[in-house]
Design brief:
alpha+beta, OB fold (Dihydrolipoamide Acetyltransferase, E2P), two-stranded antiparallel sheet
């Protein structure tokens, strides 16, 4: 009887382990031209885009462009580069394009490469 219960529990645990849903990080808010609020249904992170520096005269245009590229609930991968004062500095890569948003920013002429 004990062996049956143990086998059943192992089967049940493995079922939930292999078929559980993976929750990705998603955009919650575009705070500025280089700062995003990102969440993963458990935590929220303030993330600064790595390698992109936006000039002050292009701030409004850059925020509009970034909001179009990363609308709310867009699923993204993060590649951390470091942190400063509790803000994560990372490369942000949307699932749908697999291209770093900083690279797109720079190619659009809205930001300068600082890496």
């Amino acid at each position: 009887m004990n062996k049956f219960i143990i086998k059943f529990l192992i089967l049940l645990i493995s079922f939930f382990y292999f078929y559980s849903e993976v929750v990705a990080a998603e955009i919650l808010q575009v705070s500025s031209s280089s700062v995003l609020l990102i969440g993963d249904h458990n935590r929220t992170y303030t993330v600064k885009l790595a390698c992109a520096e936006v000039s002050t005269d292009l701030e409004d245009k850059s925020v509009d462009w970034l909001r179009k590229q990363l609308p709310r609930h867009t699923k993204v991968n993060l590649k951390p580069q470091g942190s400063v004062d509790g803000v994560l500095i990372a490369r942000v890569i949307p699932f749908k394009s697999n291209i770093d948003i900083s690279d797109k920013y720079i190619s659009e002429g809205l930001a300068e490469n600082k890496c």
